[in-house]
Each structure stands twice: as C-alpha cells, then as structure tokens.
Fold:
Amino acid sequence: MRIGAIEAGGTKFVCGIGNENGVIEERISFPTEQPERVMEQVISYFKDKNVEAIGIGTFGPIDIDPASETYGSVTTTPKPGWSGFPFLETVKKEFDVPFGWDTDVNAAAYGEAVWGVARGLDSCVYFTIGTGIGVGVYSEHKLVHGLVHPEGGHILPRRHPEDHFEGNCPYHGDCLEGMAAGPAIEKRWGMKGSELGIDHPAWAMEAYYLGQAVTTTILMLSPKMVILGGGVMHQKQLLPMIRAEVRKNLNGYVSAAPLLTGIDDYIVSPGLGDNAGLCGSLALGLAALERNGK
Ligand SMILES: Nc1ncnc2c1ncn2[C@@H]1O[C@H](COP(=O)(O)OP(=O)(O)OP(=O)(O)O)[C@@H](O)[C@H]1O
Ligand SMILES: [Zn+2]
Structure:
C-alpha cells in the first residue's frame, strides 16, 4: 500500500510516502513560504507517486467542518498568505484519492495511538511545545472535533509568583503559549532555551506552567496517556519535573493507578520521535482510505 502524508508545519513542510504499517519509505521537506509556492512543490512531489490516499496534518487554526463552505481552509493565521487559503481543495483537485484532513497535533495524537507509544489505547492527548504550543485530543477511538478543534495551547494558566514576564501571545498575552512556548522562554530569559543550563530557574518555571496544562488536561479529558513533544521537550530534565508538578497539583485526588504508581509510563515522550507528525498524517490518509471501503 502506498499512502501519501503531508506534515504542514509553520516552519517547514514535509511530504512523504508510507505504508499501512506506519513505515515511511521516502520523504522530502521544504520551507513554509507563500502557499502558492508550497502547493507547487507538494503537487509536483506526489504527481507520479501513485498514492492510494493522502493524509494532511497541518498547522492551524483550520476549518475541519465538512458542512462548512470553507472546509479545508486555514482560518486565522498571521502567517503571510495563508489566512483563508483553501489548502485541502488545492491539493484535492490534482489527485483523485481519499483525503484525511486534521490539525498537526490531532494527527500526531492519532499516529501515536495507531503505531506509537499509545498503541492500543482508546484515548491520549498529544502536546507539542515548540514555536507554539498545540494540543491534539484522541478520545474513545476518535480525534476530538467540536465547534472547531481543540486549541489547548491558549488555555490560561495561573501565573508563577516570581514571573513578571508579560507573555507574548499576540491574542492573549499570558496564555500557556504566551508563557511557555520556545519564544516565550527566549524572551523572558534573554537567551534561547537550548542555551540555558539544565539547572537554570527557567526549567522550574517551565515545568510549573506545563504541569498546570497537563493537570487541566487530566481533569477535563481523563486521557489514558499524555504525550509531550516539540523542540522545548528536548530538555530531558523537564519531563520528570512536569510529572512532579502534576502529582503535586492533583494531590492524590484522581486515584487512578497510572497517576499514583505509574506516572513515568503515563506522561511520556512521543514513541514515534521525529516521525510523529508525518506518521500521524500517514495514519489520517490510511483512515480516509478505510472509510472509502478499500
Ligand atoms: N534543545 C532545546 N531546548 C530548548 N528549547 C528548544 C530546544 N530545541 C528547540 N527549542 C525551541 O523550540 C522551538 C522550536 O520548536 P520545534 O523544534 O518543535 O519547531 P516548530 O516545528 O517550529 O514548532 P511548532 O511545532 O510550534 O511549529 C524554538 O523556540 C526553540 O528555541
Ligand atoms: Zn494565546
């Protein structure tokens, strides 16, 4: 089986071909420039590839309501040229195959549930903490859609008592993304996160915010696993600090075994590593093919 996958990131696009076992056979990547230029490259990559379906996991916000006139478009992004761009339609008219379409983080959550660390579970939540913060939600074997799609990166955390940083989300200032994404760390401390030592107070503050977000997630959605990925999570000291914050916040109130004795297997890194995004899109493509009864 040959399934096409598109991982549309804010910085770069990755296109690839994979199979029904989640194995990526080939890939290319290019920068996220103006949409017309990007689409030319996407279409020319898949032109002679004979794929049976294509899955797209993209930065958002996007329109995922099949009944909407703008289904398949990117909606309110500040990214030049992309706001209102009919992404899905542009690719769809070139290839007569089933398409999967969702956010990059919903795709990553799905990929982890199909082939990764959450394999076999009927729910998981995937966070990416990078240039932005995104949250994908898989629940009762389905990706969660609703009014639009989850936008968990913009929830409002309680401020750390020693934090005087105003926050840098253009919409909300001190929301989670405004306080804890990579650019917020850099702005608050005047240095890139990757240059701060592992004992720097930045990490306790980061864990304080991410710990709150994971706590809220557990209380709101009760997922069977929480997966934390993205560039900032390359700081290996963070994961245990976040687990400790979550335990402190919950204070024994949610008495499920994974939170009491098995938290190291409950709040985890992505099992698919750097392939999480592309494998997620691949899984979306495969699901679209299956929905078409093939
Ligand atoms: N080792 C590291 N330690 C701390 N921060 C890091 C590290 N590596 C990358 N980052 C930060 O992560 C951010 C980039 O995130 P990522 O590598 O996930 O890329 P991205 O795909 O652009 O992000 P997004 O998923 O939000 O589009 C930058 O702000 C960068 O400073
Ligand atoms: Zn925000």
